[in-house]
Amino acid sequence: GAQITSNHRSGFDFLATGHYAKITNIKLENALVYGDYAVGTLVGSAASSTITDCSATGNVKLKQGSGDSKSGGLIGAVGLTSTVTRCWSGVNVDGNNRVQVGGLIGYLRGRDNVPPSVLSDSYAYGKVTGGWKSGALVGDADASRIERGYSRGPGKALVGFNYKNPVILNSFWDSQVSGVSSSPNGGLPKTTSEMM
């Protein structure tokens, strides 16, 4: 597998996308990424972008700290009316006590944007460790929209934090695998058999 080291963004510099990127049909296997802020195996940060049918397995490890990291297994941060569709992550994310850490996306921002950023038909199953605002699918769903998302990572509910009332519809996490039976941050817990 590839190993990527970065002090700031994802090691794939061309995938710290900026604005208006379209990324489709990329599958990463056994990725290993080290970083500090806006880290993901596929994309560090994406604004006004469309990401479709992408996936990753492997590991992300963040630099130790206590502040925001906006980092995730596939994508670090998403904003400015972006869409992420039919994507999945089997990445283990070691958030090293950082904030805004997610199995698929660390920070999904919809606030102040019309329409808001949307995540749909996507899932994550890696192990996520992190501080406050860490979730098995999304770390912080800041006023965004999540439709038909699910997770089954251990130790975390679907979404870590729901700043500014995101809309979360038809989305679930496996309460048996995660060991988390309730969450105030959106989505519904389901047993493994119910998830099937």
Kindly summarize this structure in a few lines.
4% of the residues lie in helices and 48% in strands.
Please give a handful of descriptors for the protein shown.
196 residues, disordered N terminus, mainly beta, 13-stranded parallel beta sheet
Topology:
Blueprint: E1 3-5, E2 18-19, E3 22-24, E4 27-35, E5 43-47, E6 50-52, E7 55-62, E8 68-72, E9 75-79, E10 83-85, E11 88-94, E12 99-102, E13 105-108, E14 118-124, E15 128-129, E16 134-135, E17 138-140, E18 145-151, E19 159-161, E20 167-169, E21 172-174, H1 175-178, E22 188-190, H2 192-195
Parallel strand pairs: 1-4, 2-5, 3-6, 4-7, 5-9, 6-10, 7-11, 8-12, 9-13, 10-14, 11-14, 11-15, 12-16, 13-17, 14-18, 17-19, 18-20, 18-21, 21-22
- Poorly predicted residue ranges: 1-14
- What's the rounded overall pLDDT mean? 91
What class do helices, strands and sheet pairing give? Answer: mainly beta
* Beta strand count: 22
Main sheet, how many strands, which sense, barrel? 13 strands, parallel
Work out the helicity level. Answer: under 10%
The dominant shape is: globular
Radius of gyration: 14 Å
N-to-C series of helices and strands: EEEEEEEEEEEEEEEEEEEEEHEH
